[in-house]
Amino acid sequence: MNKLVKLATATLIAGVTAGAAMAQELYTPNLSYRTGPFAATGIPLMNGQADYMTMLNERDGGIGGVPVNFEECETGYSTEKGVECYEKTKGAAIVTQPWSTGITLQVLPKTNVDQIPILAPGYGFSPMMDGKTFQWAFNMPSGYWDAADMIVQYLEGQGSLDGKKVAFLHLDHPYGKEPLPVLEAAAEAKGFELLPIPVGLNEMQNQASQWLQVRRERPDYVVMWGWGAMNAGAITEAVKTRFPMENFIGVWWAGHDADLRLVGEDGAGYKSISWSYPNQDAPAMKAVREYVTDKGMTKSNPEEMTGVFYGRGIVMSAILAEGISAAQAEYGTGEITASQLRWGLENIDFTQERIDELGLTGMVPPFATSCANHTGNSGGWMLEWDGEKFVKASDLLKPDTAGYADLVAAASGQYATENAPWEMNEACEG
Amino acid sequence: MLRDVLFTPFADMIAAPDFLLQVLWEGLVSGILYALIALGFVLIFRSSRIFNFAQGIMVVFAALTLVGFHAMGVPAWISVALTLAVMLALSVTIERVVLRPLVGQPDIILFMATIGITLFLIGFGEIIFGGENKVMITEQLGIPTGSFVLEPWGGLLILEQKDVTAVIVAALLVAALLAFLNYTRMGRAIRALGDDSQAALSVGISLQTIWVLVWFIAGIIALVTGIAWGARAGVSFALEVIAYKALPVLMLGGLESISGAIIGGLMIGMLEKLFEVYWGQPLMGGGTEAWFAFVLALVVLLFRPQGLFGEKIIERV
Known about the structure:
The complex is a heterodimer. Chain A is an alpha/beta fold. In chain A, 45% of the residues lie in helices and 11% in strands. In chain A, helix 5 (144-157) runs parallel beside helix 7. The longest helix of chain A has 24 residues, at 308-331. Residues 12-22 of chain A have low confidence and may be disordered. Helix content of chain B is 70%, strand content 3%. Chain B has helices at residues 2-6, 8-15, 17-48, 55-71, 76-99, 107-129, 161-183, 185-195, 197-202, 207-233, 246-253, 258-284, 292-303; strands at residues 147-150, 157-160. A two-stranded antiparallel ribbon of chain B has the order 1-2. The longest helix of chain B has 32 residues, at 17-48. The radius of gyration of chain B is 21 Å and the shape is globular. The termini of chain B are far apart. The chains are: A alpha/beta, B mainly alpha. The interface between A and B is large, with 42 and 41 residues.
């Protein structure tokens, strides 16, 4: 009996201690992929995200005085492992960051039941923009349909697209197919021919056939939705095929410095639409250097830290931190819950003043979310590889969301019907 | 429809023969690289009946080791020598730690052991080298990086010099390997072990030595493959997936045939490119390379279950 009492007391103390430890942190797991075929693009992003949170912990003691536990769960970009990671971390998580369109699609219905916000900045399922339907899912500051629209706008700026041919080189994967509805609609509206060219996962590094098709079809432009090793494979083949680099444009995940470094000067002129820019002079970047790099707390390296993807990781974590801050202010507590964070993520107002205040000047365009709009549609800049680095090659481009509002409504309605009963945010006026 | 399948592709080939040559060249380059990977599988299978699942990761590991040594300031060709030393050490370790304790176990156990080796090398490699994409030291190795631009029939044929080099080096490697297997004592010992392991052991051939040797040769092949593929799009763990391209080559050529691996690799490389460009892209929207080689191999297996060049196994009861 005595033993039983001791055991019960020990269990109670352990439980209380663990509970206290849990309560003193904001658990924001990241379903990372530092291994596998996509690791080369994942690592700088994960490093940027982690370093920003480390900086907040070191400089400010966390967010609102509560330390952030930015634990990573490795998925290797595998959808199955991603779902496992989600299940493993969801207990105490206030957010889940799934990090692939495939994983996002798998966990999307689960989060609606578990009531945990999905944060998928710049990726995931484009109709997530409809916050009333996808009340737990966020892909701000811009989605893939925004990207497709901005790229078409940019191409139109070079001259009418009527009668032109645009090849769409994409990963043969849910992510690669995401922008097709908007591109198909634009092709019909603007009179250009869209030529989809899929690249299989096993063909990412050997795209000879795809670029032979480009050579035969002679498109005016090639638009790329590439990821991981596919980007480097495509860019080296484009150089080999002598495709004019200035007519080759990628989405933001196809604008990785290391991929372009493979071809160096030969890649000059290649472009990538981007909602982030690695402004080295921004105060947030300086703070990361001071509180993280100089203290030897980063997994990154100096070359990587100047790149577009590392800078984007910084912006991603800044968006999450802003959501947490907003929720803390609204609910008057540091230890917010997942549903309180949802409110925070629905009420982000990244005005230029707020961006400057956070030290992110020049790193992300202004945007705002609401319960009805979970994407924010910030727009982006066209970045251009100058042979050594990416530079801004355009003013801020803004997506014409009205152009595909019907597509968003139709796709989100279809999703809700196919996944019925699907709980929506009926209280949201928007 | 019938016209699109039976007539149009051939008319396109005749109308643009320079383009056809380019397709065949790209197929030849891919094919010879597939053949190299398949050779690594065949060598190990012939001598030990082990289907080496780790061949793909060995390509990545060898290439990363080479780039890693060079990044430490070691001159390129010394890096090659050091990488070969690492591959030899890896072969010895695998033989001592993994294979020797499993002698006499069923083939499936040895196969599972190579899956273990794969997982270990992925984890170990990622700890040592990281997962970032790295630039192959092509120029430092003296591999030319320009192109030969030819104009057959007034058209255009671009031959990347590094691809030409890869084809020549691969051909020399295969020739050297065939000479080694046919004209040296150790080579004949490898073949003897593949033909009849009990008889080979009874005349004093050392199983351990041969296993180390074949794994080392597979390591050399992995290094050459890694340099050739890495020169195209960088070196990262994504290279591992190219090992899957060797599976239909093995199905087609037979698991035990060196000539089968070479001819199978070339056939698959060229046929998959021809099919994709002239039939797959115009008629099916492309993406046929993901399955074409497997379908081709399956059709061959319907008529020759041992593959085109594999040995027919007759068991008397």
